[in-house]
């Protein structure tokens, strides 16, 4: 049924969007902060929480991609120029790609460093690659560059969403953030 | 040619059984001394690259065997460079003051089936504790191979003081594993 329902995001889609967004917006600054810390028990704890949050993003992304394959998102408003629509769609797909690539690179990096990932300290996840210092360096760079690319795109994405709401005054933001509509009306 | 090969093979098989062999020379390049520590529930492998050992072990008379170990603590690989630098610190192994650790066996108790219990005193960072390590013995060609593992509590030896005494990040229990290959005494 929902494949044809093109007027709204389902509740599942909205919950996944914001859950993942919050996790990424926490994991990113935590990642930047933690790398500069002096080695301490707190540093180890923060690293673990960073990895757990990131692995949660990866797990939620599996659900989100299933949702996306089985549903069609609401059409963009006709007031948008074709090029703008294409750009919005391109950014959405790049975001999807990066939301998988960033935590995946982190997981690969952790494996190559010789640190298995144990989700929330209870669920041991398999090592994706063996311990390899040279590979770890490459994967670290990949994780960092991809994370920055993701965050830059997110900034553009969020700015565009706000522009829809305050400049174009269409329903693009409110259909992803329904409570705005309620307080607005 | 064929004959001499056969002869060589026959002696290779015969030698280990022909005489009661006492294993007395540790082959350091074939032996490993490793450990697994747990950080935030994550097992992290480490090892010691340089150690010496004296040993005297006759599988026919295990009780009369003995061994002692001497470890160069600076040869630790704690899993990453950052960790290696950290553990040299006074809060961890205090390598400046205690560059070496040692183990001296007090008894070897046979458990049957080529399994033994190795009793002895382990000294790390100036603290001695009695430990018991179950081990197994098997013959590999002319060499004797010992495998064993035991768990020590790092805080018993004050390994990780101050903020690191908190066991919710780095667990108290550390598993020590040894794989020792010894050649017969000449
Ligand atoms: C949405 C997910 C993630 C985001 C946005 C993210 C972001 C970041 C950022 C911005 C950094 C700092 C970059 C640097 O200067 O090195 C970082 C570092 C790191 N990340 Fe992630 N990360 C995510 C997921 C993961 C996952 C799933 C893992 C591992 C399982 C992981 C492991 C690491 C590690 C180990 C570092 C530290 C590198 C170092 O010590 O230099 N990350 N991350
Ligand atoms: C880490 C942060 C974020 C990521 C990774 C992300 C990712 C995405 C993706 C991939 C979509 C497309 C869904 C689809 O139709 O297939 C989307 C939609 C949307 N996002 Fe985000 N988002 C993030 C944060 C935000 C923020 C902060 C805002 C608002 C300020 C926002 C507002 C929206 C809106 C309004 C839509 C719906 C667009 C439409 O109706 O076509 N997002 N987001």
Structural notes for this entry:
The complex is a heterodimer of chains A (185) and B (186). Chain A is mostly helical and 185 residues long. Chain A has a single domain (11-184), classed as Fumarate Reductase Cytochrome B subunit (Up-down Bundle), CATH 1.20.950. Helices cover 72% and strands 2% of the residues of chain A. Chain A has helices at residues 11-34, 41-70, 82-113, 133-168, 172-176, 178-184, and strands at residues 118-119, 123-124. Chain A has a two-stranded antiparallel sheet. In chain A, a hairpin with a 3-residue loop joins strand 1 (118-119) and strand 2 (123-124). In chain A, helix 1 runs antiparallel to helix 2, helix 2 (41-70) crosses helix 3 and helix 3 packs antiparallel against helix 4 (133-168). Chain B has 186 residues and is mainly beta. Chain B has one domain: Lipocalin (Beta Barrel). Chain B contains 2 helices and 11 strands. In chain B, strands 1, 2, 3, 4, 5, 6, 7, 8, 9, 10 and 11 form an 11-stranded antiparallel β-sheet that branches. Bound molecules: protoporphyrin IX containing FE (2 copies). One protoporphyrin IX containing FE (HEM) is lined by residues 24, 27-28, 31-32, 35, 47, 50-51, 54-55, 57, 102-103, 106-107, 109-110, 117, 140, 143-144, 147 of chain A. One protoporphyrin IX containing FE binds next to helix 1, helix 2, helix 3 and helix 4 of chain A.
């Amino acid at each position: 049924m929902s494949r044809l329902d093109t007027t709204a995001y389902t509740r599942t889609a909205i919950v996944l969007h914001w859950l993942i967004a919050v996790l990424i917006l926490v994991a990113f600054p935590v990642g930047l902060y933690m790398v500069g810390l002096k080695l301490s028990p707190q540093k180890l704890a923060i690293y673990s929480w960073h990895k757990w949050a990131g692995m949660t993003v990866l797990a939620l992304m599996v659900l989100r991609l299933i949702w996306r394959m089985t549903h069609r998102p609401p059409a963009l408003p006709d007031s948008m120029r074709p090029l703008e629509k294409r750009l919005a769609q391109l950014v959405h797909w790049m975001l999807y790609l990066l939301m998988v690539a960033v935590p995946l690179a982190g997981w690969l990096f952790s494996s190559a460093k010789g640190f298995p990932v144990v989700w929330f300290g209870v669920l041991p996840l398999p090592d994706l690659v063996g311990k390899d210092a040279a590979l770890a360096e490459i994967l670290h760079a990949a994780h960092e560059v991809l994370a920055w690319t993701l965050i830059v795109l997110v900034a553009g994405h969020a700015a565009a969403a706000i522009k829809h709401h305050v400049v174009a005054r269409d329903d693009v933001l409110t259909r992803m953030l329904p409570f705005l509509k309620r307080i607005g009306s | 040619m064929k004959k001499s090969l056969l002869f060589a093979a026959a002696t290779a098989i015969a030698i280990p059984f022909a005489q009661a062999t006492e294993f007395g020379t540790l082959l350091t390049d074939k032996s490993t001394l490793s450990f697994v520590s747990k950080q935030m529930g994550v097992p992290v492998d480490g090892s010691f690259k340089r150690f010496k050992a004296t040993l005297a072990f006759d599988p026919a008379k295990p009780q009369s065997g003995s061994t002692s170990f001497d470890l160069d603590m600076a040869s630790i690989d704690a899993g990453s460079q950052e960790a290696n630098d950290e553990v040299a610190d006074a809060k961890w192994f205090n390598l400046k003051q205690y560059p070496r650790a040692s183990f001296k066996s007090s008894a070897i108790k046979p458990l049957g089936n080529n399994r033994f219990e190795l009793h002895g005193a382990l000294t790390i960072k100036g603290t001695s504790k009695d430990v018991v390590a179950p081990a197994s013995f098997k013959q590999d060609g002319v060499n004797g191979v010992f495998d064993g593992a035991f768990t020590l509590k790092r805080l018993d030896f004050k390994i990780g003081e101050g903020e690191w005494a908190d066991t919710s990040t780095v667990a108290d229990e550390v598993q020590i594993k040894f794989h020792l290959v010894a050649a017969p005494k000449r």
